[in-house]
């Protein structure tokens, strides 16, 4: 049976661990209806997790005994030996949230919202996005929570992304995408509903980016972000 996973600032170095977050307590006690003797997984969000046997399940706190510690194992499971930084143009609310959620499930390491020439929406609910990232990480079994970076304009995003070994812009008129077999860190850029402008593509090339395509079909921004992330992480 799959164990429910919760990510937070847990100290897994001791035999006993305590949960005081009211939202997680409610989830365990009232929603999942777990009780003494049941097992859960707690992760510190930095790569380490442990199986916990519940000892006390009360309204104010939950305590448990660590029965097994799992050392960082995300690298092979979620491509974190092949780190992918996604630079994604801000999309309409539901579309951007979906792209973020699924990129986390696909194994992304970092998400940076960007503003391009054709970006329409420029504001974000950061707290909601962080909650989506955390819940997606818990749901799919990750031990490391991807980061959400501050919003950047396209020019500064190019500068930021240039730090990585491989730098890719996804564009309909690019060459066919052939993922590298390198284990280095990758920057991938996905544009807004209208795509990147010719000016932006020229600027990207001048900054050492490779312009590639996901195929002949015109994909929605959120679809492109999900597919691009998965392929970059898996190297397929």
Summarize the structure.
By secondary structure, the protein is α/β, with parallel strands linked by helices. Helix content is 32%, strand content 28%.
Order of helices and strands: EEHEEEHEHEHEEHEEHEH
Q: What is the beta-strand fraction?
A: 25-35%
The average pLDDT score comes to: 89
Rg is 20 Å
How is the CATH topology of the largest domain named?
A: Alpha/beta knot
CATH superfamily of the largest domain: SPOUT methyltransferase, trefoil knot domain
Structural class: alpha/beta
The total beta strand count reads 12
Q: Please tally the helical runs, counting DSSP H or I stretches of 4 or more residues.
A: 7
Detail the poorly predicted runs.
none
Oligomer classification: single chain
Number of domains: 2
**Can you summarize the main beta sheet?**
7 strands, parallel
Characterise the protein shown here.
By secondary structure, the chain is an alpha/beta fold. 32% of the residues lie in helices and 28% in strands. It has helices at residues 22-31, 74-78, 93-106, 126-140, 154-161, 198-206, 221-234, and strands at residues 5-7, 16-19, 39-43, 49-57, 62-70, 84-89, 110-115, 147-148, 152-153, 166-176, 186-190, 210-213. Strands 6, 7, 8, 9, 10, 11 and 12 form a seven-stranded parallel sheet that branches. It has a five-stranded mixed sheet with strand order 1-3-4-5-2. Strand 3 (39-43) and strand 4 form a beta hairpin.
């Amino acid at each position: 049976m799959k164990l429910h996973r919760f990510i937070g600032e847990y100290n897994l170095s001791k035999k006993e661990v305590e949960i005081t977050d009211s939202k997680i307590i409610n989830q365990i006690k009232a929603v999942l209806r777990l009780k003494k003797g049941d097992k859960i997984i707690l992760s510190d969000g930095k790569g380490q997790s442990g199986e916990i046997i519940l000892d006390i399940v009360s309204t104010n706190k939950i305590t448990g005994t660590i029965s097994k510690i799992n050392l960082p194992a995300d690298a092979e499971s979620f491509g974190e030996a092949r780190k992918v930084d996604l630079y994604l143009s801000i999309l309409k609310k539901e579309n951007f949230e979906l792209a973020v959620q699924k990129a986390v499930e696909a194994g992304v390491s970092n998400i940076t919202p960007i503003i391009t020439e054709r970006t329409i929406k420029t504001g974000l609910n950061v707290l909601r996005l962080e909650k989506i990232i955390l819940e997606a990480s818990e749901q799919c079994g990750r031990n490391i929570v991807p980061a959400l970076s501050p919003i950047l304009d396209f020019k500064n995003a190019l500068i930021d992304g240039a730090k990585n070994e491989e730098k890719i812009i996804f564009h309909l008129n690019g060459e066919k995408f052939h993922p590298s077999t390198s284990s280095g860190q990758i920057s991938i850029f996905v544009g807004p509903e209208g795509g990147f402008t010719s000016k932006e593509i020229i600027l990207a090339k001048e900054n050492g980016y490779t312009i590639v395509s996901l195929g002949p079909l015109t994909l929605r921004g959120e679809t492109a972000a999900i597919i691009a992330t998965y392929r970059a992480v898996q190297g397929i």
